[in-house]
Each structure stands twice: as structure tokens, then as C-alpha cells.
Design goal:
Elements: H1 17-27, H2 31-41, H3 43-47, H4 49-53, E1 55-61, E2 64-69, H5 72-80, H6 82-93, E3 100-103
Pfam families: DciA
């Protein structure tokens, strides 16, 4: 019969790698920067590749999402979808990170 070694037996203090990283991010107060960088990285997934390819710059400052696009047509489309984009971004992260959407 196989016996587990002492090191292989899980204890109450053991946590998964995901929980450990989440705790580390919260302890060092990196949550906001982590969320902002994940939004910028996932922008094509959130908005779609067609619009993401025409996006020149994207950043978040003071709960405002700033997006610079090259086309007037894309600016108009983004302006019409403003509330939907804010909802998609916040849904992607899991909590409210963006309250305003500004098109440059």
C-alpha cells in the first residue's frame, strides 16, 4: 500500500497558486495596476480586432478609460457604444475599474 510522504499531505494552511497570487497582489496594493494592464492587454478581445487594430493608444487614469483612434467613423461608433464598452471592460475584470470612457 502506498503511503504519502509528510510533504505531500495537504494542510489547512495550503492554498492554491491562484489564491497566493491574488493575496500577493492585494497585500502589495497592485490590484489597480494589474487590472489596468489586463484591460489594455485584452482590448482586442473586449472590443474586437477590427476596432482594436485602429486603436493607437489606450490607457486608464482616475477610473477613466482613454482611447485614441485614427478614424472619425470609429470614433463615432465608439461614442455610440460608450455604455456597452464600460460594461464590457468592468465585466472582464470582475469589478468596477472604469467609470468614464473618453475618446481622443
Amino acid at each position: 500500500m502506498y503511503k504519502k510522504k509528510f510533504d505531500e499531505i495537504p494542510t489547512k494552511d495550503d492554498i492554491g497558486i491562484k489564491e497566493a497570487i491574488e493575496k500577493w497582489i492585494d497585500v502589495y496594493r497592485l490590484r489597480s495596476k494589474f487590472d489596468e494592464s489586463s484591460i489594455v492587454t485584452a482590448w482586442p478581445e473586449i472590443i474586437g480586432k477590427a476596432i482594436a487594430n485602429r486603436t493607437q493608444k489606450i490607457y486608464i487614469h482616475d477610473k477613466k478609460l482613454f482611447v485614441k483612434v485614427e478614424s472619425a467613423v470609429i470614433k463615432n461608433e465608439l461614442a455610440l457604444m460608450r455604455r456597452q464598452i464600460i460594461g464590457r471592460v468592468n465585466e472582464y475584470v470582475g469589478h468596477v475599474v472604469v467609470e468614464e470612457f473618453i475618446i481622443l
